[in-house]
């Protein structure tokens, strides 16, 4: 853990070297992801509610999912490079160091500018929370479900990257679970068809980490969220280890 | 010129696996977006500008022809400008604008041609894509989407030319796709935007690419106004190309080649 934090701080500092470029990028992430919210706002402006949810309520859900996605995305980018390392045989390097490759990869590339999305989501979340005068217990639930959902998205990024041990190429199609999951879970899960709801509750449990805690505002639902997120992250870790066993170097 | 187009076109057709993955992704997004819109329409009380079945057409055409939108540029061009290789183009007998426009057009058309049919077929099979009401409507639609592809290529070329000035503008470059998708009606069909925005939305060039063809197919634009909208597309096409040629002339005059 200690070495993970050291490596992460090195990666962050290297990104901040060019301060103005870093700020521009953060700002552009903030603005570009804000268009996601514009899409929701336009529809809510025309139709007023969706299955009884009003705009501030949707904002809570949206804020949870967007901030969680951003946290995962910021810290999971190192796994994106996995397919390249495998292709070039560079993954050997990770196996030689006295630290688990999972942690090395996790710290390899941290992109703090992606937190532009985090601030955008947080702003929307705060607006919704202030408009609704939410209670302290609900704020805690929101906080917990951000953590749970972030862990879950992180696990999805890891699993998507780990597939490269079998396929060598990164599968773009797996984006439907990450970016698609983000889009899906911005709206109440109840608007979707039955099979679709089941899928996002039991197979990719975004519903359990984000939708149900916000919808029911039950404390135990809030507590379950990080547990489920953590469980999936652990599963992704096991999957990753399975992948390493498959790894054959390019042998040059 | 045609041979130039074919060269770029064939090169892009190589990426069939990427196209296959793209088709799957597009269908997935289409299904999600239709479900979301359905939930909104189910409890709509007033009269909406377009009906639900018309709105699904906008979604499916958006997914099928996504690649026509000027949301990205050729990474290779960026490299050529950075490394100075762009100078070789200036030695060729064909004007640089023409070469780049054709390159942009093939870059827009090749992936779109690979993807649109399976996506639309899927929409048809789940009963969300009706036949056009007449042969003439289909013809006008096809003509309109072709004009849309040309407008998409013209905007792409403009972005490429702007690289001469803003090579380092990675922040701006990141914004372009989102602005494009928003104003093209990919996030939400343009007719569903707030009424006060409609005046502006109806004049901006991004609606030429997918929005106008969709409106023609969905019957949102009455037959009497088809001609007017085609002329609108044609007008933007000429304007954007003139602007591109002018910008290119200015940029190449100032071009500094890294000697090496």
| Rg of Cα set of chain A | 19 Å
* Helical content class of chain B: over 70%
Using a beta-carbon cutoff below 8 angstroms, give the protein chain pair with the largest interface and the number of residues from each chain. Answer: A-B, 34 and 34 residues
- Measure the end-to-end span of chain B: 31 Å
Structure write-up:
The complex is a heterodimer of chains A (252) and B (260). By secondary structure, chain A is an all-alpha fold. Chain A has 13 helices and no strands. Helices cover 77% and strands 0% of the residues of chain A. The longest helix of chain A has 29 residues, at 19-47. The relative contact order of chain A is 0.15. The model of chain A has no long low-confidence stretch (mean pLDDT 88). With 260 residues, chain B is mainly α. Helix content of chain B is 70%, strand content 0%. Chain B contains eleven helices and no strands. Chain B has helices at residues 2-13, 16-42, 52-64, 75-83, 87-90, 96-125, 135-166, 170-184, 198-201, 211-218, 226-254. In chain B, α1 crosses α6 (96-125) and α6 packs across α7. Classes of the chains: A mainly alpha (252), B mainly alpha (260). At the A-B interface, α2 and α10 of A face α2 and α8 of B.
Keywords summarizing the entry:
A: 252 residues, mainly alpha, 13 helices, B: 260 residues, 11 helices
């Amino acid at each position: 853990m200690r070495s993970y934090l050291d490596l992460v701080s090195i990666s962050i500092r290297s990104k901040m070297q060019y301060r103005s470029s870093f700020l521009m990028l953060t700002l552009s992430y903030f603005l570009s992801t804000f268009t996601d919210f514009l899409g929701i706002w336009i529809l809510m402006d025309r139709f007023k509610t969706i299955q009884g949810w009003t705009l501030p309520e949707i904002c809570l859900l949206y804020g949870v999912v967007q901030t969680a996605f951003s946290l995962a995305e910021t810290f999971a980018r190192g796994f994106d490079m996995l397919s390249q390392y495998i292709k070039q045989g560079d993954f050997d390097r990770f196996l030689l160091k006295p630290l688990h490759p999972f942690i090395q990869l996790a710290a390899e590339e941290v992109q703090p500018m992606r937190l532009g999305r985090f601030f955008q989501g947080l702003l929307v979340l705060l607006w919704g929370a202030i408009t609704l005068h939410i209670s302290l217990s609900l704020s805690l639930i929101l906080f917990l479900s951000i953590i749970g959902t972030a862990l879950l998205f992180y696990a999805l990024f890891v699993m998507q990257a780990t597939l490269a041990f079998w396929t060598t190429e990164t599968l773009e199609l797996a984006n439907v679970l990450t970016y698609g999951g983000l889009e899906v879970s911005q709206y109440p899960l109840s608007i979707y068809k039955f099979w679709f709801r089941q899928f996002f509750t039991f197979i990719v449990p975004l519903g359990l980490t984000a939708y149900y805690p916000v919808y029911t505002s039950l404390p135990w639902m809030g507590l379950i969220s990080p547990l489920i997120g953590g469980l999936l992250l652990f599963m992704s870790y096991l999957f990753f280890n399975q992948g390493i066993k498959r790894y054959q170097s390019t042998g040059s | 010129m045609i041979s130039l187009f074919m060269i770029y076109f064939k090169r892009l057709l190589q990426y069939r696996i990427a196209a296959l993955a793209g088709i799957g992704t597009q269908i997935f997004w289409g299904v999600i977006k239709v479900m979301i819109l359905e939930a909104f329409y189910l409890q709509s009380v007033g009269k909406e500008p377009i009906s639900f079945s018309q709105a699904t057409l906008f979604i499916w055409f958006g997914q099928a022809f996504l690649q026509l939108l000027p949301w990205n540029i050729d990474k290779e061009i960026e490299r050529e400008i950075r490394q100075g290789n762009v100078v070789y183009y200036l030695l060729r007998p064909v004007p640089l604008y023409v070469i780049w426009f054709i390159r942009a057009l093939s870059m827009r058309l090749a992936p779109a041609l690979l993807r649109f049919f399976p996506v639309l077929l899927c929409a048809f099979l789940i009963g969300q894509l009706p036949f056009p009401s007449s042969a003439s409507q289909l013809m006008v639609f096809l003509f309109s989407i072709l004009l849309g592809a040309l407008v998409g290529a013209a905007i792409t070329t403009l972005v490429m030319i702007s690289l001469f000035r803003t090579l380092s503008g990675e922040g701006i470059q990141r914004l372009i796709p989102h602005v494009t998708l928003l104003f093209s009606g990919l996030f939400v069909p343009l007719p569903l935007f707030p009424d006060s925005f409609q005046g502006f939305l109806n004049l901006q060039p991004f609606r030429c690419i997918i929005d106008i063809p969709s409106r023609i197919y969905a019957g949102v634009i009455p037959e009497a106004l088809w001609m007017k909208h085609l002329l609108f597309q044609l007008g933007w096409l000429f304007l954007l190309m003139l602007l591109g040629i002018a910008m290119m002339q200015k940029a190449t005059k100032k071009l500094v080649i890294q000697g090496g």
